[in-house]
Amino acid sequence: MLKVIKAVFFGNYFIGLIAIALSVESCVQLRLPLNSFTYYIILFCITIFYYTYAYLGPLGTGDNMNPRKAWYNRNHTYIIWSQRILFSVCIVFGAYFMYKNFSGIETLSFKYWIVAGVIALAGIFYYGLLPKSFYKITLRNTGWLKAFIIGFVWACCANILSFIVVQIENGPHKAELFLLLWLFVKNWMFCTVNAIIFDIKDYADDSNKQLKTFVVTFGLRKTIFFVLLPLIIIGLLSLIAFTASRDYGIITIGFNLIPFILLLIIAWSMQRPHKILYYLVVIDGLIFLKALCGIAGMQFIKH
After folding, report:
1. pLDDT tens string 24-57
2. What does the alpha-carbon distance between residue 215 and residue 217 come to, in Å, rounded to a whole number?
3. What's the pLDDT score for residue 294?
4. Which is nearest to 164 in space by CA: 89, 114, 99?
5. Residue 83 domain-assigned?
6. Best CA proximity match to 185, nearest among 151, 143, 145
7. Which range marks the domain in which residue 36 is found?
8. Nearest of 138, 136, 135, 38 to residue 92 by alpha carbon
């Protein structure tokens, strides 16, 4: 069972499920048609492929190696084949998606192409997927900005990209602009806080690389009390104000508050060390829970 758990979480398969869950939550909250099964398969595979990319290079050796890196060393052949299969699935389903929705792609508004291009560029530069001679900056190494970029990419994929795909697959659909922007910012800040918490795990490596993340710059306690907790509390109060102003009802508000309250508790718990699986299961799991709570809360809105 432990081997299965490590494969699911170390291998980033759970991250793929999170991407699908957030996209479904966005469509439900905007009252739009769900994206197609084909799109969700592509999103699942490309998310896993993307996140696994960072672990395909030289991992080093030694007794103090990160358990996740050690797992990749032991399962290197499996990971290579997994990446090949994921890439092949993306190609096949991507070709089918383009064939089936060619007219929707052809008539897609130019403004959506610009937005999609920005999302793609942010994702490409985050991991430095272009040749080094082509660029000088990798967004992943921009210190404290790193967490906000991660949150931005996730929010773009969850809210903006899923909205664009709805336009391609189902024709023009309108969504309330303010609500779309609100959900985008909410996901952006939630995933950013999640990324800052993950930086606590990487404190030693980031410090050695002179990567000035929040925890490297301010230290653990100041990051928790002056960065994490204030951001979560602001998000919590904003959520209450927004949902109450739209008369969503106590049950819907309660569902949406659950992940923020748990995030507050988890941020407080970061004062003591945790194993890497805690981050992958509990902290990443909180994003998955947020999506489920968002979907469940919408079922109690009558208007």
Report:
1. 999 999 999 999 999 999 999 999 999 898 777 6
2. 5
3. 94
4. 114
5. yes
6. 151
7. 2-298
8. 38
The full length of the chain comes to: 303
Both ends of the chain: CA-CA distance in Å? 45
Note the pLDDT tens digit of each residue in 251-281. 999 999 999 999 999 999 988 888 888 888 9
Question: How far is Cα 8 from Cα 16, in angstroms, rounded to an integer?
Answer: 10
158, 207 in Cβ contact below 8 A? no
Mark out the alpha helices in the chain (DSSP H runs).
Answer: 2-10, 13-29, 37-52, 67-74, 76-100, 102-106, 110-127, 145-155, 162-170, 177-201, 203-208, 214-218, 220-223, 229-245, 250-269, 276-278, 284-298
Is 303 part of any domain?
no
Q: Which of 1, 6, 22 is nearest to 288 (CA)?
A: 22
Q: Is residue 50 part of a domain?
A: yes
Structure tokens at 266: 């988890």
User: Angle 110-127/145-155 helices, nearest 10 degrees?
Assistant: 140
Domain count, the chain: 1
Tokens of 247: 């008369």
Query: To which residue do tokens 């758990």 refer?
Result: 5
Instruction: Give per-residue pLDDT as tens, 114-157.
Output: 998 888 887 777 665 555 555 455 555 566 777 888 899 999 99
DSSP 147-197: HHHHHHHHHIIIIIIHHHHHHHHH------HHHHHHHHHHHHHHHHHHHHH
Is residue 40 in some structural domain?
A: yes
CA distance 264 to 127: 29
φ, ψ dihedrals at 90, nearest 5°: -60, -40
User: Which amino acid is located at 31 in the chain?
Assistant: R
